[in-house]
Amino acid sequence: MAEQEQRKADGLGAAWRSGPRNERMAAHKIECNACPVLCQISDGRVGACDRYANQDGLLVRVDPVLMLRRRQMDGSVGDLPSDPSPGEAGLVPFLQPATQGEAPAVESSDTGAGIFVTAVGASTTYPDYKPAPFIVSSVADGVDMVTVVTEGIFSYCSLKVKIDTDRWLGPEQANVRCDGEVVGHVSTAEYGSQMLSLGGVHHITGGSKKEGRVTVTMMQRLGNKQAVEFTIDGGAQVRVQAGQPPVVDGVPEQRMRVGCGSATVGIFAQQFTGLVDEVVVVDDHITGVLTEHQAGHCLGLRPSGLKLRGRKSTPGRYFQVANPGTGWGGTDLVDPLAIVEGWDAALAWPGQRLLMVSTTGEHAAWFVLDAALAPQPALMPAAIQAIVDRIGENCEPSLASVLFVAGAGGSLRAGVTENPVQLTRAIQQGRVTVTCGGAPVYVWPGGGITLMVDVLRMPDHSFGTVPTPAIVAPIEFSLRLADYQALGGHMAYVRPLAQVLASGSWHADGAPTARRFVAPTAGNPWPLYALPADALPGRA
Ligand code: SF4
Q1: If you count Cβ atoms within 10 Å of the first and of the last residue's Cβ in the chain, which end, N or C, has fewer?
Q2: Which atom of ligand 1 approaches the CA of 31 most closely?
Q3: Is 325 part of a structural domain of the chain?
Q4: CA of 49 to the centre of ligand 1 (A)
């Protein structure tokens, strides 16, 4: 303990760096201990994760620390300092204490310039007993705040992917493969979307070496908003990229359904009245039949006598009319009449007009019953085509969404406080704002710190990997300075924002770094103001 205190008293930086574990390591190499891989890096080379390098015998971070600079009242971000350019060996030159003229002026201990230090490029606490690399104090609305900034090395993490499509991607629980390796599974479908659960500790650590490597590489790419191809056992091929239309079996998806078949009948029932005698909205889940549906009943529509295949749930609502697929309404139907069993001759009549349409309006067909009550294809009237078009108009653009889920309840808490459960409790009590690269996160109820964040709200290139394998992702904890002290925070390591900006950097592991200023993602709350009002009395 005395040695540790002495190290603290000596200051930061190299104080936490021990000698190499391998005493036979060549003299021109240095050991990085920012993750368990413990790379031995030659001069001018980078480590296995491409994040650290040996520059003239000094361990440096290759990528800069990302800092958010808040927008001005007029929406601009003012004059941002220019990004440093890569030097020799692709290394970003790190800032020296005497060369800080590019930084915006910041009054002591204040957020006057609206700057937030994110954990993107911030380095880690590994091997965990170290304080977080940046513990930054600032003032928000007159309240003394502190933000603890660190990259997390996550073995327990996954991606929840929402793919807006009616098309059937594969059976629930089916394996999802990337480069031939199982990296996840098909999860429960949601309204208008198919869901994939990807990554997770079992694929990262529980399979072969290749499975773990492919899994984290896939997660890094998706998290960094890049496209990844998947094949689903017994299902489709799908290309996923956050914020972009998914591509199913080579076809870009365009429309997210307006609703299920029953909902579509209900929404458009009144518009159909008088123009058509029967409407069937084909849907893999709930196919709707207008005149039998409660909507048709309420409008006093004449029963058509149409008999549909599948399992009747309630009047005008049918399950399992066909097999799932990539055809009409997420079924395998190419010919919609395949689900029609016939007509009740006591109710139907020659000349009856029938519209069959899918839940997105992408498929539609018009029929008229002949004298034998057999449906004959006919030219769709313009008024009906207009309603079909309106179904399409009410579909939202089909997109893929990627949410990163991670457990931060483990050892990285030691970089925040000497009593980690206090951090967990403070978060559960709403006294700490957790952000990832400045993006707001949802913290799951219950034990631990299980967070979920939309990767599109995070800065570009927020994610990395290390070959353990594990995912590297940014995480910041913002709370009142008094609360930080109360939960056993590393108070000796708190540095005012102005000092952080003035001194360049002071990683706890001794690695100097550059910094880069970017504007926050549009729509994100300013990280320091996301606390409940009673945690910021100045705002109450
Ligand atoms: S893989 Fe780990 S030990 Fe190697 S350079 Fe990256 S963080 Fe350092």
Answers
A1: N
A2: 3
A3: yes
A4: 6
pLDDT of amino acid 535: 52
231: tokens are 């094949």
Residue 148 belongs to what domain range? 13-155+401-539
Distance CA(50)–CA(535), nearest Å, equals 39
**In which residue ranges of the chain is pLDDT below 50?**
1-16, 77, 79-112, 506-509, 536-540
H or E element in which residue 42 lies: strand 40-42
For 328, half-sphere exposure in the C-beta direction (CA atoms, 13 angstrom radius) is: 23
The pTM assigned to this predicted structure is 0.87
Q: Are residues 45 and 99 in the same domain?
A: yes
What does residue 115 show for φ and ψ, rounded to 5 degrees? -110, 135
Domain boundary among 397, 418, 445: 397
* 451 in any annotated domain: yes
Q: Is 3 helix (H, G, I), strand (E, B) or coil?
A: helix
On the question of a cis peptide bond just before residue 93, with omega within 30 degrees of 0, the verdict is: no
In a domain, 128, yes or no: yes
Mutate to test the pocket of ligand 1, among 29, 50, 51, 153 (most ligand atoms within 8 A of CB): 51
Mind listing the pLDDT tens digit for each residue in 157-205? 999 999 999 899 999 999 999 999 999 999 999 999 999 999 999 999 9
Q: Is the CB of 388 under 6 A from ligand 1?
A: no
Q: How many domains does the chain have?
A: 2
SS3 172: coil
Alpha carbons 474 and 168: distance in angstroms, whole number = 34
The verdict on 132 and 59 lying in the same domain is yes
Task: Share the mean pLDDT of the chain.
Answer: 86
| Residue 322 falls inside a structural domain | yes
Residue 29 Cβ inside 6 Å of ligand 1? The answer reads: no
pLDDT score for 59: 84
Q: For tokens 């990004």, what's the residue?
A: 83
DSSP 3-state assignment of 170? coil
What is the position in ligand 1's atom list of the atom closest to the CA of 38? 3
State residue 107's pLDDT score. 40
The SS3 assignment for 265 reads helix
502 and 445 in a common domain: yes
Whether residue 7 contacts residue 439, with contact meaning beta carbons closer than 8 Å, is answered with: no
86: which DSSP letter?
P
In angstroms, rounded to a whole number, what is the distance separating the alpha carbons of residues 351 and 370? 6
